[in-house]
Amino acid sequence: EIVMTQSPATLSVSPGERATLSCRASQSVSSNLAWYQQKPGQAPRLLIHGASTRATGIPARFSGSGSGTEFTLTISSLQSEDFAVYYCQQYNNWPRGTFGQGTKVEIK
Amino acid sequence: QLQLQESGPGLVKPSETLSLTCTVSGGSISSISYYWGWIRQPPGKGLEWIGSIFYSGSTYYNPSLESRVTISVDTSKKQFSLKLSSVTAADTAVYYCAGTTSGWGYWGQGTLVTVSS
Question: Using beta carbons and an 8 Å cutoff, which residues of A are at the interface with B?
């Protein structure tokens, strides 16, 4: 099983600042990597698929990069609505997939 | 716009079988573009993929749950279902049904299932 490790567990950021979240796979997943945002009491929302392609309706301040085993989600200028938990998920052997444990982005 | 809705009991006794159904609307459950699946989230914890199904009935399960999980599809009712047998308190979670093309792009609102006597 491919293990996904996210860092940091918690990221404290001020509104308007840049946030950088990391996700590492235990073996190569090529570009088969998605990012999700989850707010309390809500279902996750797909932000990025294919490591770098924004899903429909996702603002341009969200960007994804990486391939193989190292991935990054960048939020260029944090808005109040961006404070949430973010998960990465690999789907290299689609439609199977494993999630990372999540990174909580909180207000500094 | 594709919409998914979970339904089923919110309370299940230990050792019994958890059964949930997901109804798909706003699109075709028989589309070759989608896989359908179940994902769960224990209270305060992260997401765990349970399994996926194609409209043809092909299934894929999380190896850690495979011995207890059955996912099925009924295209005539536009539904797919989850059965998880021999449940314990560790199976208490919010269960989401979801649909995917590349990444899980469509989610139900989730339903909390508590395992307790």
Answer: 1, 34, 36, 42-46, 48-50, 53, 55-56, 87, 89, 91, 94-102
